[in-house]
Design brief:
Length: about 375
């Protein structure tokens, strides 16, 4: 190809790793209600927060939703309410810092478990092998929005052993396995509404539970440990973990959009599933039968000979395709802050974390953009 022809070739349109969208009518709806609460003067623990809690609990098929300021807070509050202080809590090594940090902040000791390469979650066998008389709880993370088909086994195991099952469902809004929604398998679940998630409230989190005692304790903990919003009587060592009304308004509107946003993500995932099925060096993570993923992440394993950092740089610089952050780049037992809790090697977590990528997926992504990602991957393979 001549230099002139090369110069005339249009540059590909950049595809972001992820993005969050609000339609024009959503922005107006949100703005109108924020004006309302600003005029009212009730900027926290008001009617929109309550509506958000009720709506999200209904989505998960549970009785209670307790809105808080982050998914991290949600997880810590649950663990405090369950009384895990001075006890062991099983935590997947393949998770975000906050999963283990919440255990430590709640007074517990994280015990890291290895990873199931098929689901990026934890197996019942791994849980059973890690249990001791000092184990108080098991935390399961639905990585990338995929609910493991072995969740019912893990829930039954926890019940039989008298151990609390907690879901870190930060990735899994609207995901499910069979007839059970993410958030409804254990004693309680924590969700995140950070801006990278499938839905957002700007900043925020939600605790969902069927347990009346956990719900009551959570409401106390989130408001500085006060037994009542109207009285300064502090019965728990709580914190300022409240969610403001403006944040709840944003979350409430995105909650209404959640089903359609998930369907759009599934449409993009279906394109990837179809077009990338024959690649030898990149294998998409298969969604098991009866699992309905929200595709917070589209995860694919890459050949162990591939330099992931170099691959991502090539896709970004030569094809304008940005891959999102991994889930996760390094397992928790390799994080310096948790070195004192790293009691054993976890080879499957090491391998999974080292050899996967996450392809772009977001609700407003077009078929053309998905095709551009596929074309870039096919060209990289052929060079």
């Amino acid at each position: 190809m001549s230099k002139q022809a090369t110069e005339l070739q249009p540059s590909p349109t950049p595809i972001p790793a992820a993005r969050i969208d609000f339609l024009a009518e959503d922005r107006q709806w949100i703005a109108d209600r924020i004006q309302e609460v600003l005029a009212s003067g009730q900027l926290t623990l008001g009617k929109y927060g309550a509506a958000f809690e009720n709506g999200f609990a209904a989505l998960c098929g549970v009785k209670h939703g307790i809105a808080v300021n982050s998914g991290t807070s949600a997880l810590e509050i649950i663990l405090r309410a369950l009384g895990v202080g001075h006890k062991d809590v099983l935590v997947p090594a393949n998770s975000f810092f906050a999963t283990a940090a919440a255990v430590v902040h709640a007074g517990g000791k994280p015990v890291f478990t290895d990873t199931d390469p098929a689901t990026l979650s934890t197996t019942p066998e791994e849980v059973l092998a890690a249990l001791t008389p000092n184990t108080a709880a098991i935390v399961i993370v639905h990585i990338g929005g995929l609910v493991s088909p072995r969740m019912p086994e893990i829930a039954l195991l926890a019940k039989n052993k008298g151990i609390h099952l907690v879901e870190d469902a930060a990735h899994a809004h609207g995901s499910s396995y069979q007839d059970t929604m993410a958030g409804a398998f254990g004693a309680a679940a924590a969700f995140s509404f950070y801006p990278t998630k499938v839905m957002t409230s700007g900043e925020g989190g939600m605790i969902v539970t069927d347990d009346e005692a956990i719900a009551r304790e959570a409401r106390i903990y989130r408001d500085q440990g006060k037994s009542s919003f109207t009285e300064n009587v502090h019965t728990r060592l709580g914190y300022n973990w409240r969610l403001s009304e403006p944040h709840a308004i944003i979350g409430l509107r995105h909650l209404e959009r959640l089903p359609s946003m998930i369907e759009q993500r599934r449409r993009i995932a279906a394109i990837y599933n179809r077009e990338l099925a024959g690649l030898s060096w990149l294998k998409p993570l298969r969604t098991p039968a009866d699992c309905k993923s929200n595709y917070y992440k589209y995860v694919a394993m890459i050949d162990k000979t591939i330099d992931r950092k170099a691959l991502k740089a090539r896709l970004r610089e030569e094809y304008a395709v940005s891959l999102s952050g991994e889930v996760y780049e390094a397992p928790l037992h390799q994080q310096p802050i948790f070195a004192s809790y790293a009691a054993k090697s976890l080879p499957l977590a090491d391998t999974v974390c080292r050899h996967h990528v996450c392809l772009p997926v977001f609700a407003s992504m077009t078929d053309g953009q998905a095709d551009q990602v596929v074309s870039a991957l096919l060209q990289v393979q052929g060079e």
